[in-house]
Amino acid sequence: MDIALSVVIPTLDAAGTLDRLLEELAHARAEGLALEVVVADGGSADGTVFCAHRHGARVIAGPSGRGTQLAAGADAARGAWLFFLHADTRPGLGWTEAARRFMAAPENTEHAAAFRFALDDPTPQARRIEALVAWRCRVFGLAYGDQGLLISRARYRALGGYAPVPVMEDVDLVRRIGRAHLILLDVPAVTSAARYRRDGWILRPLRNLLCLALYFLGVPPRALARLYGMARR
Predict the structure, then answer these.
(1) Contacts of 117 (CB under 8 A, 6+ apart)
(2) pLDDT tens, 161-193?
């Protein structure tokens, strides 16, 4: 069977969340979606690589840095379509049918799709974050990497792919895709809320907003990475 879709997942010590994502992708394969999984690992010291191999994923090892890893994974992928996912995000109910419909439409070879942001937390704080992200996508057309990105290989290459930058690699590519060519699918991409619980439901969004504003003002991504205060995973 020809590979229709390559799922590219950048990882760094992601064993805690990767297993559930790969189980979801295995279900999609069992339902008849012709896909491969490419895990672009940046030097994990936990069980990430073992987990990936156990689920039959291809592992590409290289330097850490999400932009660099995403680019390497895309280069290694063999599908006509690419689906970029974070290791702590899993596509929700109905995603395979939505992906099939999107890939089947000839005009979508010139478009890309992102999913609806959702958090795996029942609290009102999580719902407020989801509403804020929905507003950002609706008004500015800015979908982040934790919403997934589905794009044809040809279009991805024509746009120049992911830049090898430590932060804002998702915003950089989405801006090149353009708001008019980004379609938001009403299917959730469910992301772990662990970082919001750790960093604060208010502080983390404010920090992200500050980084975004500085990026648009021309601050280099490597300087933003220091402000972000962590290595991107």
Answers:
(1) 130, 133, 134, 137, 143, 144, 146, 147, 188, 189, 191
(2) 999 988 899 999 999 999 999 999 999 999 999
* Domains along the sequence of the chain with CATH: 5-228 (3.90.550.10)
Q: Which residue has the tokens 């809320």?
A: 193
Q: In whole angstroms, give the CA distance from residue 37 to residue 179.
A: 28
pLDDT at 43 over 90: yes
Taking the whole predicted model, whether its pTM rises above 0.85 is answered as yes
**Which residues, other chains included, contact 88 with Cβ-Cβ below 8 Å and sequence gap of 6+?**
14, 17, 21, 146, 191, 192, 194
Residue 70: name the closest of 132, 3, 159, 133 by CA: 159
How many angstroms separate the CA atoms of 143 and 199, rounded? 21
Of 53, 44, 56, whose CA–CA distance to 11 is shortest?
A: 44
Angstrom CA distances, 117 to 112, 167, 189, stand at: 16, 19, 5
Q: Is the pLDDT of residue 35 over 70?
A: yes
Cα 22 from Cα 52, distance rounded (Å): 8
Q: What is the pLDDT of residues 83-128, one digit of tens each?
A: 999 999 999 999 999 999 999 999 999 999 999 999 999 999 999 9
Quick one: tokens of 70?
A: 């995403």
- Region of residue 232 (left: phi > 0; alpha: psi -120 to 50; beta: else): beta
For the beta sheet containing 81-84, the strands, ordered from the edge strand earlier in sequence to the opposite edge, are 58-61, 35-41, 5-11, 81-84, 149-152, 112-119, 182-191, 89-91
Q: CB neighbours (10 Å) of residue 232?
A: 21
Cα distance between residue 173 and residue 165, in whole Å? 11
